[in-house]
Amino acid sequence: MIDGDPNLWLEDLHGEEALAWVRERNAETAERLTKDPGFPPLAAELREVLDDEGRIPYVRRRGKYLYDFRQDAAHVRGVWRRTVLEEYRLEQPAWETVLDLDALAALEGREWVWAGAEVLNPGHRLALVRLSLGGKDAVTVREFDLEALRFVEDGFRVDEARTEIGWIDADHVYVGPDLGPGSLTVSGYPRTVRRWRRGTPLTESEPVFEAAAEDLSVAGWFDPTEGYGRHFVSVQRDFWRCELFLLTDGNRLTKVDVPDDAEKYVHRQWLMVVPKTPWSGHPAGSLLAFDFEAFLGGSREAAAVLFTPDAATALAGHSWTRNHLILKTLHHVATRIEVLTPEAEGPWARRPLAEVPPLATATLTGTDPHESDEYFLGVSGFLQPPTLFRGEIGGETEAVKRASALFDTEGLSVRQHFATSADGTRVPYFVVGPDRTEPGPTLLYGYGGFEITLTPGYDAVRGRAWLARGGTYVVAGIRGGGEYGPGWHHAALKAERERAFEDFAAVAQDLVDRKITTPGRLGIEGRSNGGLLMGAVTVRYPHLFGAVVIGFPLLDLLRFHLLLAGASWTAEYGDPEDPADLPHLEALSPYHGFRADRAYPPILVITATSDDRVHPGHARKAAARLRELGHRVLFHETTAGGHAGSTDNEQTARVEALTHTFLWQHLGGGA
Q1: Which of 10, 92, 134, 505 is the most buried (most CB within 10 A)?
Q2: CATH number of the domain where residue 477 is located
């Protein structure tokens, strides 16, 4: 099948013939969608939403400053800026510009996209700024002076690559560089950890550790916590297995002996562990705390059990302040927040931190565990614009920011239902929209992979483009995700992937049975792994859907491991080179499942030339094959944007307007 693939030429990313094909398809899609009378006003509305000045600036504290990155009409590429708490509390804070990406892009003639920064702690004087060309995962790294507000001349600098880098102190960093052949893993990530001293060439940096080429990646870092300064190396064996080592003098590595598939890290005196499979009498998805020094000395019995899951409740995250641990859990995908405090003897003390409204989500941001017990808590729901609270544990909580309401919610409600999948499993899903007496246009969204959880949240773009125009929006928490912890994810790994597809189909059928919609008025959308989901359910259940949007997708399960970062996902899907995995991959692969003798709903496929994570060849080849088989398919490929699909608000608004115009054309109502 691989050797006989007639569309392999479309994997030639920048090949003249392939790009000519892309231009032709883009022109067809523009002709079909942008000339719809509803497209121009929709694109304008979405740009207005994205540029809204009432969006909450979600800040990160670094020393006395609160940092934020902002894109809007005045800052198309964005501005890295900062303020202090007293200003941040004001309705219109005074912001100090740290780095203006629009000015930098104009000065250097490059399409820079912000990819984040790491600020040196302690001191907060220096930063390692990451810049991406066109939104790619590969970045350029430059050292930046946060007092002088300029790049450091002759400072640390790494040209474009998938670089891992982090501070040790003001004159040293750990770096995982691309130094040419042999320095990257098969998946294209750093294979070595090196200690790099200021003023020396990167090629002369000191080797600390080298992983095998077949490993996924390796990283080194320094924990600067006062009184607990430690060096670590982690080796990601595959997507789900990682080994953690304590690095001591002479580059001696001591393995932290917990299961490779467990999440683990060290904070102050604590070794924190989240086992993904049952371990030492603790169920998968527990949260455990060990005394780190005692653990290294051989003690394995004295774990503080901070969370134990049950059939309805899963760990959703945790975050440290200076003296406390904030614990986030999900009960049937609804958020709960508690504060835990270590005690000298006995169980850790615990109490609720804040009440989260039903069918809403809380997100922790901005804490600095080195400095204080300050926290920021963002709360939002499908119909509830975000509110950001600030507090210090043990003190008062204040609402410091409230976002604008950007779409009309009158007559809309949120409900949670459960569908029954093919094997009897109950699958949760949220329905957002009007309480209709007759079925109406409905959009069903899903992901179902990599233990990623879909929770309620305010999406003003979806609200304006779909809900405010009379549509119903549905989010499905299918297996493969993390809605009920590791077991929910493991249930759809590799050969069991079919469970995720069955779950999604069960939700679709339940929507029809409840008369929320009909198959002809039910659209579906998913991106990345969700794009795989869309392709797979289209192959298996085309009669259930009226339109399909497949974004930035993985669709060729026989060649994904050969394209860009694809080799890193074999732990999720299986390895096409393994005879034991090949049969189920052949059966699951949407690209190989499309048939001429089946009636598929209209399909829109979206990708980006600059996506260096999921190769655009997946999307190109699928669209080409569907065309060859005589099916209705539109294709749109942006140039920049990487895996996110856009670099600025104008491009985001255009892609979303194309998507929703396509959906309205086929599901009824008109944009």
Answers
A1: 10
A2: 3.40.50.1820
- Considering 205, 421, 528, 610, which one is annotated as catalytic? 528
Expressed as residue numbers, the domain containing 94 is: 56-161
The encoded tokens of residue 270 equal: 């604590």
Question: Tens digits of per-residue pLDDT, 511-547?
Answer: 999 999 999 999 999 999 999 999 999 999 999 999 9
**Residues 134 and 103 placed together within one structural domain of the fold:** yes
Instruction: Write out pLDDT tens, residues 259-295.
Output: 999 999 999 999 999 999 999 999 999 999 999 999 9
- Where does the pLDDT of residue 3 fall: very low under 50, low under 70, confident under 90, or very high at 90 and above? low
Distance between CA atoms of 631 and 605, rounded to whole angstroms?
Answer: 13
**Cβ atoms of 371 and 61 closer than 8 Å:** yes
Tokens for 308?
Answer: 């134990």
Segment 45-70 mean pLDDT: 95
- Answer whether 0.85 is exceeded by the pTM: yes
User: Cα–Cα distance between 413 and 443 in angstroms, integer?
Assistant: 15
Q: Residue 54: what residue type?
A: G
Contacts for 420 with CB less than 8 Å, ≥ 6 apart: 426, 427, 506, 510
Residues 572 and 620 grouped into a single domain = yes
Same domain as 330, residue 451: no
The last residue of one of the domains, among 161, 186, 214, is 161
Q: State whether 325 and 347 are in the same domain.
A: yes
Q: Exactly one of 592, 618, 636, 643 is catalytic; which is it?
A: 643
Whether residue 69 sits in one domain with residue 141: yes
Domain boundary among 405, 434, 453: 405
Write the CB contacts of 118 (distance below 8 Å, at least 6 apart in sequence): 127, 128, 165, 166, 167
* 643 assigned to active site: yes
Residue 43 host element (H or E): helix 39-50
- Do 344 and 460 reside in the same domain of the chain? no
Residue 234 is among the residues annotated as catalytic for this protein: no
Instruction: Verify that 490 and 548 share a domain, yes or no.
Output: yes
Query: Would you say 81 and 70 are in contact if contact means Cβ atoms under 8 Å apart?
Result: yes
